[in-house]
Write a structure and sequence with these properties.
Shape: globular
Distance between the termini: 26 Å
Low-confidence stretches: 1-13
Number of domains: 2
CATH topology of the largest domain: Fusion Protein Consisting Of Minor Coat Protein, Glycine Rich Linker, Tola, And A His Tag, Chain: A, Domain 2
CATH architecture of the largest domain: 2-Layer Sandwich
Radius of gyration: 19 Å
Strand order of the largest sheet: 1-6-3-4
Number of helices: 8
Largest sheet: 4 strands, antiparallel
Strand content: 15-25%
Helix content: 40-55%
């Protein structure tokens, strides 16, 4: 099961420029609590003690729903995706004044800080190496998922399956990894984040496993 115990998530104040500001229902304490309770700390960054501040930019419509959300500044790893997911989950939880300029960009910096009592032996150099390794792995990951997407459409090349299997072993895509992803997807689904859960379930399918097929059939069609 994915854990985020031992990590602290700090949420900075909203960066807004207009005079009439949207307010998260319940105020800043409620926003802080929402993020800390909803976040599913990405396993790769947790294991590698990666600290980062992710600046997520988004827009609200008049009903307080998140219209657009994207990373304005981040390290380009799994923390980015989780920060955006959380911001999207705040949709509908904002009170927007009548005088607010709809379409204005709001920025929330979210800082992920590792528990240094657990990460004392992890150097900044090793963290940077982990970030670089994550980005390098993404290309290999794409090769795997593209292969299985084509295979499910009857277009897979059986001559490269051994290479794909070797890549899966290299990236650690084993039963333990898949079970972690299933737990992660389950957490998201329980939070009401069906899209996030379906993304994880489809990723499991697209690395050649059928362990998420029943969840996809039931929830993602």
């Amino acid at each position: 099961m994915l854990k985020h115990i031992g990590f602290i998530v700090f949420v900075c104040c909203l960066t807004l420029r207009s005079t009439a500001q949207p307010v998260f229902k319940g105020g800043q304490p409620a926003l802080d609590n929402f993020i800390t309770t909803k976040i599913v700390y990405p396993e790769y960054s947790r294991q590698n003690c990666i600290a980062a501040t992710i600046k997520v930019a988004f827009r609200l419509d008049a009903a307080g729903k998140v219209d657009t959300a994207y990373v304005q500044d981040g390290p380009g790893i799994d923390l980015d995706e989780e920060a955006v997911r959380i911001v999207r989950m705040t949709s509908g939880k904002w009170t927007v004044p009548n005088t607010y300029a709809i379409g204005a960009v709001i920025v929330i910096p979210i800082t992920f800080t590792p528990d240094y009592s657990r990460c004392n032996n992890v150097t900044n150099q090793s963290r940077q190496a982990a970030i670089a390794n994550y980005k390098a792995q993404e290309q290999l990951q794409d090769a795997i998922t593209n292969y299985y997407k084509n295979k499910y459409q009857g277009k897979g090349d059986p001559n490269v399956e051994k290479q794909i299997t070797a890549l899966k072993i290299q990236l650690g895509y084993d039963d333990s990894f898949i079970n972690d992803l299933l737990d992660q997807a389950n957490q998201k689904f329980k939070q009401g984040d069906k899209a996030g859960a379906c993304k994880d379930w489809n990723f499991i399918r697209n690395i050649g496993s059928d362990k998420a097929d029943s969840f996809i059939a039931k929830n993602c069609r």
